[in-house]
Design goal:
The chain is built from 1 helix and 9 strands. About 10% of the residues are buried. The model has no long low-confidence stretch (mean pLDDT about 90).
Length: about 120
């Protein structure tokens, strides 16, 4: 992960161990799956309440986790495929930017939360 600093440059966020996103549907899909076709993960959600922010949907987060995206922030998440038989050499990078505004209408929410793949 890396967070956009005040100068617009992304700075690394230390992560003590690799973190795993949740496979969907979470109620019936175990944390470890055999991928035989396309598999979808739950990337994240908007946490409403006093601390409105975007949160990645992970099986576990350390107590000092710094990967939440608050108002006017942006974080880049680098995802890597890891399995018993294969580890990808490259990372797919996705940037999440949030202006801190909540709108229950999905078409309007797209104006406040942007998730983009970075080449």
């Amino acid at each position: 992960m890396s967070r956009r600093g005040p100068n617009g440059i992304f700075q690394p966020i230390p992560v003590p161990v690799p973190l795993q996103f949740i496979w969907t549907p979470p109620d019936t899909t175990p944390p470890l799956v055999t991928i035989q076709r396309e598999q979808i993960l739950d990337f994240g959600y908007i946490h409403q309440g006093a601390n409105l922010r975007w949160e990645p949907r992970l099986y576990w987060k350390p107590g000092n986790f710094a990967g939440f995206v608050g108002a006017n922030e942006a974080i880049r998440y680098s995802l890597q495929i890891v399995s018993d038989a294969y580890v990808s050499e490259t990372y797919q990078v996705f940037q999440v930017a949030f202006d801190g505004v909540w709108d229950p209408v999905p078409a309007q929410m797209m104006m406040h939360l942007a998730i983009d793949e970075i080449a």
